[in-house]
UniProtKB/TrEMBL annotation:
GO cellular component, one term: cytosol
Pathway membership, UniProt: Amine and polyamine degradation; ethanolamine degradation
UniProt enzyme class: lyase
Protein name: Ethanolamine ammonia-lyase large subunit
Subcellular location: Bacterial microcompartment
EC number(s) on file: 4.3.1.7
Binding note for cofactor: Binds between the large and small subunits.
UniProt source species: Chitinophaga agri
Catalytic activity: ethanolamine = acetaldehyde + NH4(+)
Cofactor field: adenosylcob(III)alamin
Name of the gene: eutB
Residue sites binding substrate per the record: 160-162, 193, 287, 362
Entry similarity comment: Belongs to the EutB family.
Primary location recorded for the protein, binned into one broad class: other
Length: 458
């Protein structure tokens, strides 16, 4: 099926829905690299005007990647909830946008609707939104998950404490963890990207994290961000809280990561069987990022933002505790500058929330991108207003193992303070018991005798 729109006597033709979605996307370098972007601003506007008139039902029978070719397409179609979709089934994409911005689309209504929306519907409507719209809609969404604490409640902002070390040195990692805890970070997860994926190294780090957590009775969860197959190999040998995996929006992308839906299902069931959660059983942690499919030459001719939102269908299947878009990590080939990174992050957060996911954002950039920490300050503030579930806490905002710039413990304090946000309730109570924060969320002076400072990594 082809689509077209005329502006000033010039007719723009879009051969199929996949092309229309790509041409309607706000400009980013990845789509230009793939040859998918609109060639002029006017063509992009024509595509957006055309997309606004597409009925939502079209996305249920016009797959942008064929059903028989891609297991994520099959997942999207086979798991679609027609009853949840019914209240908006008569809408076009443009009408969905207008409704989402209206008072009729409140928090409870959006929670009920999310199983009826497909990633392509959500990607399409986001392409018609200003940044302000993306913030407004996301702010109305509330997605709450639980393991040892409760993440995603309105009025709260959690932090993944990211104590990476380029040699996985336990003492260096422990120093970063204690530093982060004393600044109120770590309620989303204490999560380490290991320098090596060897099972022995992963087991050693997991045992250290669990010993620290138990010694100080910290109501949080830990995760070593190893490959899912490594986690499955050691899951009965080590204290595994969350199972991690990077995922993409096409079957080919996930194959390049060495995963399929069946493998993720096996890992999910294995993690559930451990029964390590105390207040809930959300046991998966997924990371995504615009450009991952294109960088693997697995995008199937689909624009990078739509590919990203399709990855959320994979995440949604496994009811994760955390989903994190590592928005500026892949590099300027995919998101060239601060403006593109900010736009992509707001899209990812809004689209994930609309699909019912507990979205966090790694507010980050690489040193060869046209971005700086001022861009990240802007994005951090915007995401805080939008109700982001969690952000990263990296010592000094500079990850010495992954070599990119993110957000620091101090950045999280800033966001909580200026926006009146608190850590997860259980973690907040622990911080007060430890004398780290008071009931107003103010950081307290911690003396040299504080027992956290006595911790010795084994």
């Amino acid at each position: 099926m082809s689509y077209q729109h005329t502006i000033h006597y010039k007719t723009y033709q879009f051969n199929d829905l996949r092309t229309l979605l790509a041409k309607a996307t706000p400009f980013r370098s990845g789509d230009a690299l793939a040859g998918l972007a609109a060639t002029t601003y006017e063509e992009r506007v024509a595509a957006q005007m055309t997309l606004a008139d597409v009925p939502l039902k079209t996305f249920l029978h016009d797959a942008i990647i064929p059903y028989e070719k891609d297991e994520i397409t099959r997942l999207i179609i086979d798991s679609h909830d027609g009853a949840a979709f019914a209240p908006v089934s008569h809408f076009t994409v443009g009408e969905l946008r207008d409704w989402l911005l209206s008072d009729a689309a409140d928090t409870v209504t959006l929670q009920q609707l999310s199983p009826g929306l497909t990633p392509e519907m959500v990607a399409a409507v986001s392409k018609l939104m200003r940044n302000q719209d993306l913030i407004s809609v996301a702010q109305k969404c509330e997605v709450v998950t639980r393991f040892r604490n409760t993440i995603g409640l309105k009025g709260h902002l959690s932090v993944r404490l990211q104590p990476n070390h380029n040699t996985d040195d336990p003492k260096g990692i422990a120093a970063s963890i204690i530093d982060g805890l004393l600044y109120g970070s770590g309620d989303a997860v204490i999560g380490i990207n290991p320098a090596t994926d060897s099972p022995q190294a992963v087991v050693q780090l997991l045992r250290m994290l669990d010993q620290l957590r138990e010694q100080f009775d910290i109501p949080t969860q830990s995760c070593i961000l190893c490959h899912v197959t490594t986690a499955l190999q050691i899951i009965h040998q080590a204290p595994v809280d969350l199972v991690f995996q990077s995922i993409g929006g096409t079957e080919k992308t996930n194959s390049s990561f060495g995963v399929q839906l069946k493998l993720l299902q096996e890992a999910h069931e294995a993690a559930l069987s451990l029964n390590r959660g105390t207040v809930g059983n959300n046991v998966m942690y997924f990371e995504t990022g615009q450009g991952s499919a294109l960088s693997a030459n697995a995008h199937e001719g689909v624009d990078q933002q739509t590919c990203e939102v399709r990855a959320y269908a994979v995440a949604r299947k496994f009811s994760p505790l955390l989903v994190n878009t590592v928005v500026g990590f892949i590099g300027p080939e995919y998101l060239f500058d601060g403006k593109q990174i900010i736009r992509a992050a707001l899209e990812d957060h809004c689209c994930g929330k609309l699909l019912g996911l507990p979205m966090g954002v790694d507010i980050c950039y690489t040193n060869h991108a046209e971005a700086d920490q001022d861009d990240m300050d802007n994005l951090l503030t915007l995401l805080g207003v939008a109700g982001c579930n969690f952000i990263m806490g990296v010592p000094g905002a500079d990850d010495i193992m992954l070599n990119y710039q993110s957000t620091s413990f101090h950045d999280a304090l800033y966001a909580r303070k200026v926006l009146g946000l608190k850590p997860a309730p259980e973690f907040d109570a622990w911080l007060q018991r430890q004398g780290i924060m008071d009931a107003r969320g103010q950081l307290q002076q911690v003396g040299k005798a504080h027992h956290l400072l006595s911790y010795q990594a084994g």
